[in-house]
Design brief:
The protein is α/β, with parallel strands linked by helices and 374 residues long. It has 2 domains: 3-178 and 356-373, Rossmann fold; 188-352, Rossmann fold (3-Layer(aba) Sandwich). It is 40% helix and 16% strand. It is built from 14 helices and 14 strands. It has helices spanning 3-6, 24-38, 76-89, 107-113, 134-149, 158-168, 213-222, 240-246, 262-271, 286-293, 304-309, 323-335, 337-347, 357-373; strands spanning 9-13, 42-48, 58-59, 62-67, 95-99, 117-120, 152-155, 173-174, 200-204, 228-232, 253-257, 274-277, 298-301, 317-319. The strands form 2 sheets. The protein has an 8-stranded mixed β-sheet, sandwiched between helices. α10 links the parallel β12 and β13 (298-301). The radius of gyration is 21 Å and the shape is globular.
Length: 374
């Protein structure tokens, strides 16, 4: 490896940190950061100081900087990136990589300091029901600012690239979110919930309106299915919408809350009859990639993003955003078990090269090297 390659210094910010893995961005930083270090890149990750009791400077070869934030629901992320950006711009890093379009305006700082930047802007944040009013307007404006101040916009799906071209007249590079094909695991973990293999439908995701668990539950309960519907996930704060769902009384519903044990989660994915995907906004979705990786039969809400991920029906069936459509899809899936088995057998082949973390890392490295030369 040439000496010049070894010197490439990349700062990453905008997520909770490393090796903290809670959401999609944290997972990406872990997968990407460790691979970049293996390729001789100096990787620095900015961590939320409040989340780390112990603060080692280096973890697995990744430099960790613990920056403060104004701790509140709406300000934590933004103030953390603001302080991190100031620190990175006054240091000797070659490239700054930011995740989350909400951080778009901070590109003006790196512009002033003439530091090359890239930003992964993720999904249609301004459409998500949780950002009503000002929050929605802020995310739309911030995403627009990202296209003005950052040197390279990165999207994780072709559909999001089209959206950014249409709305902001800005092209972006498409680098998908990575996934790892998984081995199916035994059914032992299911005993915890008295479940049997193939005897339940599965939802995995935060209990927020844009993941449409309410719609799926309503449609499922209208169906004649004798199976259970298992809902994995929750919200980390008191929420009337989520509580309303959790209070629905029906013996076919099972709310597990968060499942943090990887073996238990693997068991739930591996043995479901069908995985339900109701996520509505955004590009490549990590939960869907996991479902493909574990070989699940998939029923997904019919959106351009889900069509792209399931290759227009090659790796799943679709339902419309109506309870009646969910009901019909459940009953059709139950009446065609051999079709569900076919989907399981071919699911892992849906994780094409574009979703391979090594391939994803190569594409990011190419972007970072190009920016560093500027």
């Amino acid at each position: 490896m040439a000496a010049s390659e070894k010197k490439l210094k990349v700062a990453i910010m905008g997520a909770k940190g490393y090796p903290y893995v809670y959401g999609g961005y944290d997972t990406m930083i872990k997968e990407l950061g460790e691979r970049l270090v293996a390729k001789g890149v100096h990787v620095r990750v900015y961590n939320h100081r409040a989340l780390f009791k112990e603060r080692p400077r280096f973890v697995n070869g990744i430099e960790c900087i613990y920056t403060p934030a104004i701790e509140s629901k709406s300000l934590t992320q933004l103030t953390h990136t603001f302080f991190s950006m100031l620190h990175a711009c006054t240091s000797n890093v070659d490239v700054i990589f930011v995740v989350n379009s909400g951080n778009g305006p901070f590109g003006i700082i790196s512009r002033i300091f003439r530091k090359p930047t890239a930003i992964n802007v993720d999904g249609l944040e301004w459409l998500r029901p949780k950002w009503k009013g000002f929050g929605s307007k802020y995310f739309y404006w911030a995403s627009k600012m990202a296209t003005k101040f950052f040197d390279q916009i990165i999207n994780d799906s072709d559909e999001m690239r089209r959206v950014y071209l249409e709305l902001f007249n800005t092209d972006s590079k498409v680098i998908a979110y990575g996934a790892n094909p998984r081995e199916s695991v035994g059914s032992e973990p299911l005993k915890k919930w008295n479940l049997e293999s193939r005897d339940y439908f599965l939802i995995v995701g935060r209990l927020v309106p844009d993941n449409n668990a309410d719609l799926i539950i309503e449609g499922f309960l209208k169906s004649n299915s004798k199976r259970k519907l298992v809902i994995v996930g929750d919200v980390p704060f008191a929420d009337a919408w989520a509580n309303r769902l959790k209070n629905i009384q029906d013996p076919r519903l099972l709310f597990t809350g968060y499942v943090t044990d990887p073996k238990e989660l693997a068991g739930l994915y591996s043995h479901c009859y069908v995985y339900f995907h109701g996520h509505e906004y955004g590009g490549t979705n990590p939960a869907m990639l996991k479902a493909l990786g574990y070989g699940c039969a998939i029923l997904a809400l019919d959106t351009p993003f889900n069509q792209e991920m399931l290759q227009n029906g090659k790796h799943g069936w679709y339902f419309e955003k109506k309870a009646e459509s969910v009901k019909e899809t459940v009953e059709k899936a139950e009446s065609e078990p051999e079709e569900m088995e076919k989907l399981r057998k071919t699911a892992r082949s849906g994780l094409t090269q574009k979703y391979n973390w090594d391939h994803v890392t190569e594409q990011y490295l190419e972007v970072f090297r190009g920016l560093a030369k500027k």
